[in-house]
Design goal:
elongated; alpha/beta; five-stranded mixed β-sheet; 17% strand; eleven-stranded mixed β-sheet
């Protein structure tokens, strides 16, 4: 809501008059309540001076009154879009009397609500940043000068993660019979990212998902701030015995996490829908998000309809994601067709090696044929500890023919004492110690109290000769057959997952089956393709490809292989080999 110089000067004169006349704060607030419907416009005399300084900065166009905080996940919703959202809610028969905006910012959601919802009686809004508070209050002054509204506005400057925020719900409890709307656009950032920025606006440090062991250490305890805000908000609303509607702009990944948490600890959400929104167009960021709508406080439903944000269109197509048969899936309709493959993978999927130090650990041959690291430093090491190495981008072929890189392997099993390298590999030991400061600078907690130069994702399985690898990052699913190179097993990085085999024939038959269309259809019904890492060990372990193998005879297998994969790999096999493979697989424990 733009402000004219005249409007800003008018308010500056008002504030100067307050200070000149030295009116009591209660009298000033009574005067401003008549003008704005805002309760307790100023909480102290110091805030009057603060507001005055803000107006002066606003009039001085050389200074920004609201510095950009996009590094903190702060993306303010444009007023024209908050208007569309409120209009959409009204078209869906949402007519709130009480509104809560827990991440108010510039207040555009509140401004739109005041324009569109005629029955609003009370508004509660929260933000921590003074600049946003004053901008919001100026917007209210301007709006009230243009139109009448009766809603009483309560603004709280506080940390949404504090106990003070919970006290607001004690005030809301007084209105159990009123229709509630909770609306907003929480920050799009994770707790880990905020910690790196030394932000103080964080929830109290805790493993709020209750993760154990390595899951908590290796990134799964990282969560979106919006996820925490919404779950905490719903829990407070539930304790207060309130019901109504929520409408939040959220990353799609956050909506999915909320639905997952809802199933674990019911939040009384129902009639859930996610209206796909063009975040690139509206906020100029590369993120996939939606307007999440749901009723709260009455019943619980564990599915969510996903469809485009309506723009004067009818009969929009949608898909449904969420829980079915106690399983979380991305497309319920497709999952029903392929759920016969739901179960447990006959073999364990492993994640590649984690080292977090590519510039030291990953080597390659330069144009002169010299082995160098990423800093272009020539490296001479014992070859016994160097292995052919593939990254996610190398797995986008049917068969990996040649690796571009070599990886230093410092351990043969997890936790092995690396001090042994001093005698068995003196050149490697010297090289590693030259880079000791870089190893010590690795931020992941998994390296704490571990031997020097430790790596993870290492074990007997790492050194199996044959593997089938898949990228966790790539949206296009592809299973890649990997054979030894230079008489050494190929190692994958930690963005990849793989099955491992002692025998080529076992790897070959499994690889062909994993490329069957049914496999891809099943996995596509599970994964959210816009996720940062669509394919995970958790997802792959749900694929019981044995069920496909059981229902596939040799004739069908041979037909698929000949038409789709024979050009990539020439291998001699017989029906007897095929049957032996099936029989051996059936002997594996479920």
């Amino acid at each position: 809501m733009p402000f004219s110089v005249y409007f800003l000067n008018e308010n500056l004169n008002m504030v100067n008059n307050f200070l000149k006349l030295k009116k009591p704060i209660e009298e000033i607030n009574d005067n401003l309540k008549e003008k704005t419907n805002i309760m307790h416009f100023f909480r102290s005399e110091a805030e009057i001076h603060e507001f005055r300084d803000y107006l002066l900065r606003f009039l001085n166009k050389k200074k920004k009154v609201i510095p950009p905080n996009q590094d903190l996940g702060d993306f303010q919703t444009p007023l024209d879009f908050t208007d569309k959202i409120c209009q959409l809610l009204q078209n869906q028969n949402c007519d709130p009397e009480i509104l809560l905006e827990p991440t108010c910012g510039k207040g555009n959601f509140v401004i739109s609500a005041l324009k569109i919802f005629p029955d609003l009686k009370k508004i509660f809004c929260v933000d921590l940043q003074p600049n946003y508070e004053w901008y919001f209050k100026l917007s209210i002054i301007k709006l009230r000068s243009e139109r009448e509204f009766q809603a009483e506005i309560n603004f709280y400057r506080l940390n949404i993660f504090s106990s003070e925020f919970s006290n607001i719900f004690k005030k809301l409890e007084k209105y159990p019979e009123n229709e509630f709307l909770v609306i907003g656009n929480p920050p799009w950032i994770t707790n880990t990212e905020l910690s790196k920025l030394d932000s103080l606006n964080l929830p109290e440090k805790s493993n709020f998902k209750g993760l154990k062991g390595l899951d908590a250490l290796m990134g799964k305890s990282n969560f979106d701030i919006a996820e925490y805000i919404i779950i905490n908000l719903l829990q407070n609303l539930m304790k207060s015995g309130l019901s109504g509607k929520i409408a939040f702009l959220l990353k799609d990944s956050v909506i999915q996490k909320i639905l997952k948490e809802h199933h674990r600890s019911p939040l009384r959400l129902s009639n859930n829908s996610a209206l796909e929104t063009d975040f690139q167009k509206i906020f100029h960021i590369n993120a996939h998000g939606s307007l999440f709508l749901a009723n709260f406080g009455e019943s619980s439903e564990y599915i969510c309809k996903k469809q485009p944000f309506p723009e004067n269109t009818k009969n929009l197509q949608y898909k449904t994601f969420g829980w079915i048969d106690n399983k979380f899936v991305s497309n319920i309709e497709n999952y029903k067709k392929y759920k016969w493959m739901e179960g447990k993978s006959p073999k364990i999927w492993r994640q590649g090696v984690k080292h977090d130090l590519s510039k030291v650990m990953v080597l390659y041959h330069n144009s002169k044929g010299n082995l160098v690291n990423s800093n272009d430093e020539k490296v001479d090491l014992e070859k016994k500890f160097l292995y052919p190495f593939l990254k996610s981008s190398d797995l986008q072929v049917k068969i990996a023919q040649k690796s571009r890189f070599e990886l230093i392997i410092t351990q043969q099993k997890l936790g092995q004492d690396t001090k042994l390298l001093e005698e068995t590999a003196p050149k490697l030991w010297n090289y590693l110690n030259q880079n000791l400061d870089k190893f010590n600078a690795r931020k992941s907690k998994i390296y704490n109290n571990k031997p020097l130069f430790s790596i993870f994702g290492i074990g007997d399985y790492t050194f199996k000769p044959y593997k089938i690898g898949v990228s966790g990052f790539y949206k296009k699913l592809n299973f890649c057959l990997i054979k030894p190179q230079h008489d050494k097993p190929v190692i994958l990085d930690d963005t990849c997952y793989y099955l491992f085999f002692d025998k080529l024939m076992d790897a070959f038959f499994t690889w062909v089956f994993l490329n069957f269309p049914d496999i891809k259809e099943f996995l596509n019904s599970l994964v959210f393709i816009n996720a940062k890492r669509p394919y995970t060990k958790e997802i792959l372990m749900r694929l019981n490809y044995r069920n496909l193998i059981k229902r596939t005879d040799y004739k069908l297998f041979l037909k698929f292989y000949s038409e789709n994969l024979a050009d990539d790999m020439e291998v001699s096999f017989s029906e007897s080999d095929f049957n032996t493979f099936k029989n051996d697989l059936n002997k594996l424990d479920d």
